[in-house]
Amino acid sequence: MKNFLKQSAVLMLAAGLLAGCATKPAPAPAAAPQPAAAATTQAISDAQAVVASAQAPCTDTGNAADLIAQAQAAAQAGDNAKAQQLATQAKQAATDALNACYCAKAKDLLSQAQGYTGLTADQQSRLSQAQQDETNGNCKGAYDTLSALVSELQAARMTYSVVRGDSLWRIAGKSDVYGNPYQWPLIYKANTDKIKHADLIYPKQDLTVMKNPAKADADSAVEYAKHRGAWRHHKADKKDQKWAAGGN
After folding, report:
1. Structural domains counted in the chain
2. Fewer CB within a 10 Å sphere, N or C end of the chain?
3. Is 104 helix (H, G, I), strand (E, B) or coil?
4. pTM for the structure as a whole
């Protein structure tokens, strides 16, 4: 009887094992969509950062936006290699477009800055550094430096308080003004609202002096002063006013 029970148990165990082997395993759940590779995400983010950095006066980033959109579509389709390639192209396109714009702007500002006179040692140093940056292709750096420098030169002015015995000729000739008496028309031009007759100024008048006149303006003033002739009963007033207004 005992042997019969043992044999029955063995047979039942074997049947269970066979039944288990015959049963198919349950299907694995569908894999969740995998996110874009980290390198793809970073490449797209880098391209977007360059586009986002665009600001006036340089906002054109070429076809970078279209390339980024294509890169994102490729990433969603799982083609990371293509997505990274497109993102790299987008970054380069944006970088090239922005740099081209800043190079053109820096070149114009450099020409303006070089046209001013009376630069201090510090201003001359900044001008030289900007010129070097522009030559080396660091056009954004050159633009930033030159933009600030030109604004500074345009706005630079001093106030001169007239004392007894002064004339525009004498004031212009002072070393802390222009150091050249023939540049007196520059002072007249900056003060036409205060000076009725260029040859008549009065003590305690506060006159504005542009510290860094453009070389072209300074040359024009000297040329005018040399050919204006002497003052005689305000006969030169109209000539002075015409020159100050931009006439010849």
Report:
1. 2
2. N
3. helix
4. 0.74
